[in-house]
Amino acid sequence: MPSLDPTNPETISLFGPLALILIALVWGFARILYLNKTAGVSVLAVLGRKRSLVETAAGIVAIVLDVYLLARPFWPELDTMVALQQHPYMHWGVPLMAFGILIAIISQVDMGKSWRIGVPEALEEGQGLVTGGLYQFSRNPIYVGIMIFVFGALVVAPGPLTLASLVLTWLLVGSIIASEERFLETEFGEAYHSYKGRVRRWL
Question: Is the CA virtual torsion 184, 173, 108, 201 positive or negative?
Fold first, then answer.
């Protein structure tokens, strides 16, 4: 295990993802509590109904990837177990991961009280069609941030596990987006069709 020298690329590639994931978890938890307390919004729509197989699979992929990145600094043998391929630019993935988290956080703030984890059974009070902020450039900036984060993880720890995480996340998120779009088309009709016509799904 490298010394905790912030200028050491090996230290950055090991401890950088750990710090970023902890920051993201704290932010997400705090955001959920804030919306619940100040706006009376139950963000966890996914808990209010039966989760789909796709949502469950996406959750498992995210947990496996995050646990691996969190455990790497304390269990170096993991890298051998997952056939990690070393290269001298692994630490460059940390800024990519940070950028992805930043995009996701800004996107959550842009959504305000409309942010939900999962699709609710029906449109809830306070939910509206969000088209401002980052949503004027992408219909799904949170997922753009997630994909950048996972790509950064592949740069930080290149190997079969992170490559599989990237591919599976892309496929599963694509399916989740399709289900969310069906919900939005049903609830917002022409307003969503107009928005969809001028803003791309990704970028």
Answer: negative
- pLDDT tens-digit profile of 68-125? 999 999 999 999 999 999 999 999 999 999 999 999 999 999 999 999 999 888 888 8
Indicate whether 1 belongs to any domain: no
Closest CA to 1 of 95, 113, 76, 64: 76
pLDDT tens by residue, 157-199: 999 999 999 999 999 999 999 999 999 999 999 999 999 999 9
- What is the DSSP annotation of 150-161? HHHHHHHS-SHH
189 falls within a domain: yes
Angstrom CA distances, 200 to 50, 137, 193, 195, stand at 29, 7, 12, 9
Considering the domain boundaries, does residue 181 fall inside one? Answer: yes
Number of domains in the chain: 1
> Nearest Cα to 100, choosing from 168, 27, 153?
153
Domain that holds residue 55: 9-198
Q: What CATH number does the domain containing 147 carry?
A: 1.20.120.1630
- In this structure, is residue 2 part of a structural domain? no
